[in-house]
Amino acid sequence: MFISIGSDNYGCVDMKSRYVIGLIVLVLVLQAGFGYFIYYSLPTWPDRGTFGDMFGAVNTLFSGLAFAGLIYAIYLQSRELSLQRVELMQTREELAKSAKSQAHQAKYMLKAAKINALSTRAQCCSTLLVAKKNIVVSGKSMSSSDALTQTLAELETMIQEDEGADL
Questions:
Q1: Phi, psi of 16 (to 5 degrees)
Q2: Rounded to whole angstroms, how far apart are CA atoms 66 and 78?
Q3: How many CB atoms lie within 10 A of CB 14?
Q4: What 3-state class would DSSP assign to 147?
């Protein structure tokens, strides 16, 4: 078999196409050979016609087999489409689960960011409390102890909301 590196088995397809082309050429050569043999071995047209009529039943047999092959191919295609539909539905379900999970993750990341911001504000307030300085929170100037109390209350509220929420 001829398979080149990195071809994803295109070499096998090349070999299959060579076999198919070889079979087509063989059938054409056999057909031409039979035609030549019949033309020169049977002297008159009526004899040739009679000889050809002997194969009418075989022609019917091969036509029936071809039709049965067509019906089988349609059946296989129908089955494959059914399997594709099932797989597509499973993919949709998995995507819906993934989207729901991402929404939950985004929700909790936002809460974590808010808690982190409040925690940073509480650290700033405690640092300013030690330095006995005032702080500006939400556009209002207040003492660092009041700002720390307010920040801790907001953190407590957020934690209670998380405990009350259905995870």
A1: -65, -40
A2: 18
A3: 14
A4: helix
Describe the crossing of helices 144-164 and 56-131 by its angle, rounded to 10 degrees. 150
What letter would DSSP give residue 165?
A: S
What does the DSSP assignment read for 63-112? HHHHHHHHHHHHHHHHHHHHHHHHHHHHHHHHHHHHHHHHHHHHHHHHHH
- Report pLDDT digits (tens) over 81-100: 999 999 999 999 999 999 99
Global pTM reads: 0.45
Residue 135: in which H helix or E strand, if any? strand 134-137
Q: What is the pLDDT of residue 1?
A: 44
Contact 154, 120 (CB under 8 A): no
